């Protein structure tokens, strides 16, 4: 199975290539990609240099243009696609049907991957994208069990890529407006979720309160480590109880299921984290590459050290395990 | 320019799990009394709930059609299981009714068959709308998140497609494979005992500072605030929007429909309409922030200086 690694900066890109990534994914420094964070992403020139470096090392480059085109400003996305194609991207990762149609028509030779943001969660949906836009790979939503993935694999006409490590969306990706409800900025439209520009921390008595827009997302008693207020990972009051209503502050780790994923027909494993630093990328990629190259019984010890790098150091196998639901 | 009076109203599907008789009687009353032109029916949120309304489906369809309403059959918002795809495919094969796509799989199955697009499909621009229309979509309800600037662009570019906007109801904000509603009551999805049926208007999610924020509806998360575009109907009609969707809440939806018809017909002005709407659905504050490209939770008062206000 291929290892697909994130790069939010040229430095992280180089680290991922050197650490043995089979492909690195990245995006332009604008609203066309779903990690549109300050200080991240690539200029045209930086991408040109990165792709050249990757090609020398035999690594592929995937360019994510995976937000939904703003009505009337479609040219920004079309230009992004044109430039990525011209710069030699090995695949474009797309979510918007309008953009997929444009790319399929204008650049029929270009490899097109379906972003997780497109929310293609079943064979009918995936084959629709294969037939309509000649999609060659689908990144599956983090809402499926491994049994679901195996069943989908038997019934679709393209490759499957799945997330195995890093941040975890609780909601179906590309179908969530929680962030814009609280901040006016959403993954689909602005490429951001729970953006730092709308985050505030304040002291209240002995507690630290984290807020997103006007809403309290969490309160941390003295001594408890405070996390970032990602909306769906907050603590809320429901009926008479309070707690993590949607998901604990955990991250995804299904590296223990590599054999099952392989048997399910998965072609590529994806690591989340374009917002992460180059040291993180280097460590995670090299460890996972070593794990993939080791016999299954030796993987556990290699992967154990990755746990210390996870968000809150707690991990979950998420929807891949049926009881998560 | 479209005349306000040439507009139509669509009653969306009931997103919540209502008692089956309540669901039936609600639609009977809509058939008899509500000035809506079409009614979308059928389970949209969770396939586990489907059997509840099935015994009443035929009589509801008949009553609505006898009253001159167009009936549209809804489909699931998140399709992951085999039996869910199969159910949509079978419905498409046997049904003589128009169907509404809420997920990519339905788009695939309904290709070349006339159908409508629900507000849960990501239509953010004209090229996407054009593509869907070329595959058989006859009416497209735009996502609640879409700002007016985008609605205007899309309708201007595609004047021949009927566009609808989500004009009333708690906003469907997210859907998950995991059921937060069941979890909040100590269950999981596979063993949920339909506890979502205990909350016919959603289960409130408050912040730890007791701010009303969201509501759980099974695997769906909706807003606490209720979207209302009553004050914006004139602008939307001017922009070419032909139809307005009213999403059922646990309140007098016949009165809500009448009020929207009256504001569209000009017999009640928008400000008076908003005041009345606050009485008809007092369970939640009104919000229209998405329309104004602001936070979805805020209310922008149009009569003064477009001042955004957070719900109390």
UniProtKB/TrEMBL annotation, chain A:
Q: Identify the pathway.
A: Cofactor biosynthesis; ubiquinone biosynthesis
Q: Which InterPro entries match?
A: Peptidase_U32 (IPR001539), RNA/ubiquinone_mod_enzymes (IPR051454), UbiU (IPR043692)
Q: Where does [4Fe-4S] cluster bind?
A: 169, 176, 193, 232
Highest taxon, organism lineage? Bacteria
What keywords were assigned to this record? Answer: 4Fe-4S, Hydrolase, Iron, Iron-sulfur, Metal-binding, Protease, Ubiquinone biosynthesis
Any one GO molecular-function label of the UniProt entry: 4 iron, 4 sulfur cluster binding
- Say which species the protein is native to: Rhizobium wenxiniae
Q: How does it assemble?
A: Forms a heterodimer with UbiV.
Cofactor requirements of the protein: [4Fe-4S] cluster
Q: Name one GO biological process term.
A: ubiquinone biosynthetic process
Q: What is this protein called?
A: Ubiquinone biosynthesis protein UbiU
Q: Which HAMAP family match?
A: UbiU
What the record says about family reads: Belongs to the peptidase U32 family. UbiU subfamily.
Entry function:
Required for O(2)-independent ubiquinone (coenzyme Q) biosynthesis. Together with UbiV, is essential for the C6-hydroxylation reaction in the oxygen-independent ubiquinone biosynthesis pathway.
TrEMBL record, chain B:
Q: Which GO terms describe its biological process?
A: proteolysis; ubiquinone biosynthetic process
Is Nuclease among the key words of this record?
Answer: no
Q: In which pathway does it act?
A: Cofactor biosynthesis; ubiquinone biosynthesis
Q: Which cofactor does it need?
A: [4Fe-4S] cluster
The Gene Ontology terms for molecular function here are:
4 iron, 4 sulfur cluster binding; metal ion binding; peptidase activity
The record lists [4Fe-4S] cluster as bound by 46, 179, 192, 196
Keywords assigned by UniProt, alphabetized: 4Fe-4S, Hydrolase, Iron, Iron-sulfur, Metal-binding, Protease, Ubiquinone biosynthesis
Q: Which Pfam families match?
A: Peptidase_U32
| InterPro entries, alphabetized | Peptidase_U32, RNA/ubiquinone_mod_enzymes, UbiV
- The domain of life for this entry's organism is Bacteria
PANTHER family named in the record? PEPTIDASE U32 FAMILY, UBIQUINONE BIOSYNTHESIS PROTEIN UBIV
Q: How does it assemble?
A: Forms a heterodimer with UbiU.
User: Which family, according to UniProt?
Assistant: Belongs to the peptidase U32 family. UbiV subfamily.
Function per UniProt? Required for O(2)-independent ubiquinone (coenzyme Q) biosynthesis. Together with UbiU, is essential for the C6-hydroxylation reaction in the oxygen-independent ubiquinone biosynthesis pathway.
The entry's protein name is Ubiquinone biosynthesis protein UbiV
Task: Report the gene name.
Answer: ubiV
